[in-house]
Amino acid sequence: MLSYTKETKITYQFLTNKNKSNMNYRTKNYSAFYVAEPYYPSNLGANAAKDFVYYNMLRAWKRTDPSFPFYDAHDTTYDVRDNSSWELTLKPRLHERLRNSKNIILFLSENTRDSRALKEEIDYGINVLHLPIIVIYPDFHYNSCIANKHTPNNTAQALWDKLPVFRDNIDKVPTAHVPMNKEYITMALNNPDFTIQQKSKNYCWCY
Fold it and tell me: Between 146 and 79, whose confidence is greater?
């Protein structure tokens, strides 16, 4: 019979290897954005929603430039914000996509509202999965508008109040803050510090 110490060591090694294996499958970027609910991607109202339009811009960049490092967690069959049951269907789908993701892309603008889905995405992503967050500010196209050297400025921080669950937990995960600019977004997406696999310390960073 194995000793307790040896059994414990084997169990720990098994769980460690399993965790590493699970990490390898977390390759997606989970985009979090505000839209009025219920939400359907084909709905004209959704396409008129500012944050959704900018999320669609990332998808368009990927279609025209396959090297753009965006891997859409929502590129699946099922919606996560339609009129299905929140507790039985939508929230479990949302959690599943987040568990398959290496980070969260949060679109934070003047249009952002503290909706049930967006609050759940950020709360579960930070406090359960500890996912790094890349914050895109769609209202701004230049880094100088949101950054003071490498730190988010007062303009950027004022928008955090739109989403208290993000504001109050921002120090728990690494966060990159970028304007709606393909060059800066590409740098953030390519930075391994903002992936669950290789994150090191929790800090806010602007390019």
Answer: 146
Q: Does the structure show a pLDDT above 90 at 73?
A: yes
38 φ, ψ (degrees, to nearest 5): -70, 150
| 8 A C-beta contact, residue 122 and residue 95 | no
CA distance 143 to 135: 12
Domain containing 62 — which CATH number?
3.40.50.11200
Beta bridge partners of 134: 105, 176
Give me the domain span that covers residue 168.
27-206
User: What is the count of structural domains for the chain?
Assistant: 1
> Is pLDDT above 70 for 57?
yes
Apex 23 CA angle, 13 and 129, nearest 5: 100
Task: Tell me the sheet residues that pair with 204.
Answer: 175
